[in-house]
Amino acid sequence: MKFTLGWLKNHLATDASLDAILDGLTRIGLEVEGVHNPGEALAAFRVARVLSAERHPQADKLQVLSVDAGDGPMQVVCGAPNARAGLVGVFGAPGAYVPGLDVTLKVAAIRGVESNGMMCSARELQIGEGHDGIIELPDDAPVGTSYSDYAGLNDPVIDVSITPNRQDCMGVHGIARDLAAAGLGTLIAPEVPAVAGEGPGPDVRIEDAAGCPAFFAQAVSGLTNGEAPEWMRQRLTAIGQKPISTLVDITNYMTVDLGRPLHVYDTAKLSGGLVARRARAGETVEALNGKSYTLAEGMTVIADDVAVHDIGGIMGGAHSGVSETTRDVIIECAYFAPEAIARAGQALSLTSEARQRFERGVDPAFLDDGLAIATFLVLHYCGGTASGVTRAGSPPTTMTTIRYAPSLAETLGGLAVPAERQRAILESLGFTVTDDWQVTPPTWRRDVDGAADLVEEVIRIEGIDKVATVPLPRAPGVARPTATAEQLLERRVRRAAAARGLDEAVTWSFLGAAQAAAFGGGAWTLANPISEDLKVMRPSLLPGLLSAAERNLKRGLSAVRLFEIGRRYLKDDKGASDERMTLGLVLAGNRRERGWREGKAAAFDAYDAKAEALALLAAAGAPVDNLQVMGEAGEAWHPGQSGTLRLGPKTVLARFGMLHPALLKAIDLDGAVAAVELYLDALPAKRGTRNFMRPAFAPPALQSVRRDFAFLVPETLSADALVRAVRGADKAAIVGARVFDVFTGAGVEAGHKSVAIEVTLQPSDKSFTDEMLKGIADKVVAAAAKQGAVLRG
Amino acid sequence: MTEDLDTLRDHLLGAIPAADSAEALEALRVEALGKQGSITQALKTLGKMTPEQRQSEGPRINGLREAVATAIATRKAALDRAALDARLASETRDMTLPADAPIAGTVHPVSQVMDELAEIFADLGFAVATGPEIEDDWHNFTALNIPETHPARAMHDTFYFPDGAAGTGEAPRMLLRTHTSPVQIRTMLDQPPPIRIIAPGRTYRSDSDATHTPMFHQVEGLVIDKGITLGHLKWTLETFLKAFFERDDIVLRLRPSYFPFTEPSAEVDVGYTIEKGKRVIGGSGGGWMEVLGSGMVHPKVIAACGLDPAVWQGFAFGCGIDRLAMLKYGMDDLRAFFDGDIRWLKHYGFSSLDVPTLSGGVGA
Q1: Whether residue A222 is found in the same domain as residue A172
Q2: Which one, of A605, A497, A668, lies nearest residue B345 by Cα?
Q3: How many other C-beta atoms are found inside a 10 Å radius of the C-beta of residue A171?
Q4: Shortest Cα–Cα distance, B77 to chain A (Å)
């Protein structure tokens, strides 16, 4: 919401400085977003008279002027066709910056004649479009004075941010009222002229009383719609609105001045009377912004017998809009239901100055006065004669009374304000306060409907800075732990991953549809995505990480280790959101760079992914020794180099391995990528209360013994199956079994591989004898044989 | 005999230190102490001697044996040491060659700041609460006193999901939460007061430019108790910001504002100074920066959660986590937070060891 200081002073008698007013606005909740004085840019330009004008000796189109800007004659070369002796215009001396030309003037010779400045056009000063010649001021303009002072441009433009609850401050008058309440001046009541209308009012009526409870109108005939008065155009221009014509400018001016949107219809373009009714589905209207809108059933519109002429309270129609040929008009001053306006505006994606005010709720008690002021301005500046006023319906002016206790200022607001001071504050804002504190808000404050709102009014005017800080009561003793098991898990896994050399990324929660489809598809697709790439809620963290990996590789990085902890978004049986805490990681490029010690660079492989998965699961407290490595990682993965880690056959804790080359190709990622997705939500919860006591330390009395076995096994037998068989051969003695060599090739028959296993044996109460060791070895060989393994000689 | 022993002593004790290899020394050992060695032979003669002779010769011969054995051991140690020195000299390597580069990962600034917040607020008795990011209309708006037609909904550029259940109107309208405030509602519905929580997490608005991303992070704070006032809110925010920035010169400015779910409402600016052309939080010489929205929880919100607003009152606040990180650690582009650029992550990220603690300071 923009206005100028001068405009404000029409409503507020004040001696306060600009700075005091700006501080005051922010202090009471009308945040100043900016202030700008257009006159400052033109401070160097003065009113000047052309004393004489003679032809330039070297150029037909130039003249050599003698100009008096208050300091006696100066020679200026000028190309304007209207430059002539006696003209009073605007002069910029050397050193002045001309905003429209983006140059700073200096003394220069133009075709051999010295020029000491410039007579300016409106466009050169960015105060208008005129560029046919230099500005011509009235003959009596005081030579030598500052042009911006003379033209009233020295009026700072203030931009305040108005919160959605304050429709009353969508008008300069309401802002003045707030400032007056804050002690920054005295509010000047708007002058409501008496307009003597003749004859019956225009034919307007209401069919949709819910959407448009009140429709007041007055006709003016025989008017002339020319250019609005200079002061009005200047103010509208200052706040960034383009002057159009007197009638349009009056409605725009009143919208900003009093927060009272109006609409003016060209009577000649209407067929029959106007009715506020509900739109029929599919009705269309071309609005004043030049766009065509198709209306939905139920939107409130103003229509005549033939067509819709106004999207009620949002924007007028182009067909019945006024023009320079307009002679007769109907002025509409209506009250539209805020909820209806909000719904229609949202549905049409159409914002306007009028909608902003109507959807917050204009003052329902200001229809008569608003219409009178508007009609007065039209008559005053356009001439013509006014009809009587038609009042269809009645605006909802009843306000609910609130029971208030002045003690609330302290018990809720934290500031003790004397009751009488509170009364004075509320009354200065227009509230009615009875002796027993029944408070009725003014009609322009429909946002206030409870005691807490009144506390806010009192505190913001009294000064929120006066509220003293009060420490929150503190529980005795040292602060207790507050983190939940899930939060601790997330923190541990995050820091474990970072400690293992992985960089944590945060990627978008939404993906393109194809990216999501590659990982099983998303359960949630946005109705209004910001782009096709950010449309589907991710079913996996890997696509986002892969995109990040791809960007990093394109930037020339040779190794990418990225992880993310976040949610994947599923849907439960009932269709509700099912968000699951997940860790994703990708390893791309080189696991090891080439080096003088190890030689060639080594790329990441599936076992790197497995190592990360197991390490992070261990950090998460998962029983990693009990996990089963199984297949079926899914279609996104390399079918022969991926797997799942499961707790029991069904609970998948992680997927790991190499990603499918087709998937990588689709996102233009060169090379192989190892990845892990770890399902933190699937981890078994820790049971029991926190117990810090650990079991007693009881190392075995006797040393363990190691024995190696090399087996010839079918190539398809998994190492895991063989190791499990070996471990199970003698559960009392065998405490460990580990593959230390896998070999195929020379000496191993085709379709087979050699797997060497180191078995750790732990004697309990007495050392193993040779026979015992032989017995265990026999059991190992027998157990392995059941898996198709043959001990190698 | 006597003369022989003296000759033998002179010979051996002269030759042993001069032995120039382990083999030469071994030959001398065999020559003197071996089975047929001269000293071994001499010892054998003792048996044939008279007791008197044995009395005088025994110590002499044994003394010679010990002297020779010691000389051999001494020489052997010297030779071994020389051999080790020679071997080590041959093993010299260029110690300026690079060792394996350490592989260090990083924690994202958003995670780090969330940990910092949890640490600070734990000391003030606040637990960390969470809620779904895919929310329904009621929790995100209605329960927070934002009815469908409320102009405030225009302030939230909301991402919606298509109407559920084939438009039967029975399923609630689902959306991506536009703020962390629905966690307030869920917490009040789930647990009895008194309540002190913070709720950090992802939030979404359909907005994208240099300072807005469609996804960002917020932290919500909520206190519900008896007798809580705006004064407590002010103290909490001031205490939090002082702890977060680890500066005592934090200056707050509260500005009356509007949020549908708080009344009274205030936006909170924090003062900054300009140091080396950059805005640094602290003091107020440079101006004010908006960091927080806050207020006393609206009685309608408390009532919507089934509590009696005449008994329970409290405050709530919300704050951008990404923004807090930027103000504390100096990043200037929000979009980079979500790009996964490893160079950026290495630059602005944190070591896994930088765990925020109150005793060590929450900043790193």
Answers
A1: no
A2: A497
A3: 28
A4: 36
Minimum Cα–Cα distance from A570: chain B residue: B134
Verify whether the Cβ–Cβ distance B230 to A412 is below 8 Å: yes
Domain count, chain A: 6
The count of domains in chain B is: 2
Contact flag B338-A507 (C-beta cutoff 8 Å): yes
- Contact call for residues B114 and B153 (beta carbons, < 8 A): no
Instruction: For A485-543, give the DSSP string.
Output: HHHHHHHHHHHHHHHTTPEE----SEE-HHHHHHTT--S-B-SS-SSTTS-EE-S-SHH
Contact residues on chain A for B238, CB-CB shorter than 8 A: 469
ipTM rounded to 2 decimals: 0.89
Cα–chain-centroid distance for residue A629?
46
The verdict on a CB contact (< 8 Å) between B230 and A506 is no
What is the predicted pLDDT for the residue at B169?
54
Residues A636-678: tens digit of each pLDDT: 999 999 999 999 888 999 999 999 999 999 888 888 999 999 9
Q: If you measure CA to CA, which chain A residue comes closest to B297?
A: A452
Residue among A530, A550, A574 with most chain B CBs within 10 A, to mutate: A530
For the stretch A12-42, pLDDT in tens is 999 999 999 999 999 999 999 999 888 888 8
* pTM score: 0.86
Which residues from B are below 8 Å from A595, CB to CB? 98, 100
Q: Which residue among B134, B149, B351 sits closest to A577, beta carbon to beta carbon?
A: B134
Same structural domain, A569 and A630: yes
Strand partners, A759: A707, A737
Q: A64 and A182 share a domain?
A: no
Retrieve residue B351's tokens. 């070591």
Strand A651-659 relative to strand A637-647: parallel, antiparallel, unpaired?
A: antiparallel
Rounded to whole angstroms, how far apart are CA atoms A134 and A150?
A: 17
Query: Could you list the residue range(s) of the whole structural domain that residue A232 is in?
Result: 204-393
Q: What is chain B's percent helix, strand, coil content, to nearest 5?
A: 45, 25, 35
Other Cβ atoms within 10 Å of A328 Cβ, number: 20
Tell if the CB–CB gap between B98 and A596 is shorter than 8 Å.
yes
Contacts B93 to A, Cβ<8 Å: none
Contact A247, A378 (CB under 8 A): yes
Q: What is the pLDDT of residues A733-757, one digit of tens each?
A: 999 999 999 999 888 888 999 999 9
C-beta separation of A83 from A119 below 8 A? yes
Residue B270 neighbours by CB distance under 10 Å: 21
| Residue B140 belongs to some domain of the structure | yes
Q: Are B264 and A455 in contact (CB under 8 A)?
A: yes
Tokens 């600009």 correspond to: A18
Residue to substitute from A31, A339, A482, A500, interface B, most B β-carbons within 10 A: A482
Domain assignment present for A472: no
Please give the residue of chain A at the shortest CA–CA distance from B299. Answer: A452
Does B183 contact chain A (CB < 8 Å)?
Answer: no
DSSP state of A278: E
C-beta atoms surrounding A8 within 10 Å: 22
**Are A551 and A665 found together in one domain?**
yes
Residues B141 and B30 in one domain: no
Mutate which: B135, B255, B362, vs A, most A CBs within 10 A: B255
